[in-house]
Amino acid sequence: MQKRHRPRTQREKYGEELRIRRVAAGMTQEELSEIVVCSPTLISHFEAGRRLPKPDDAKRIDRALGTDGFFFRWLEDLESKFADYFAAVVELEKQAKLIQQFALSLVPGVLQTGDYARAVFAARRPNHTREELDEAVVTRTQRGRILDGPAKPVVWTLLDESVLRRRVGGPQVMAAQLHKIAAMAEVGRLRLHVLPFRVGAHALLGGDLTLMSFEDSAPVAYVEGFQSGNLMDDPAMVASSQSAYALALSDALSQQESLALVRSVAEEHAHGQQ
Question: Which among 87, 97, 105, 203 has most CB atoms closer than 10 A?
Answer without folding.
Answer: 87
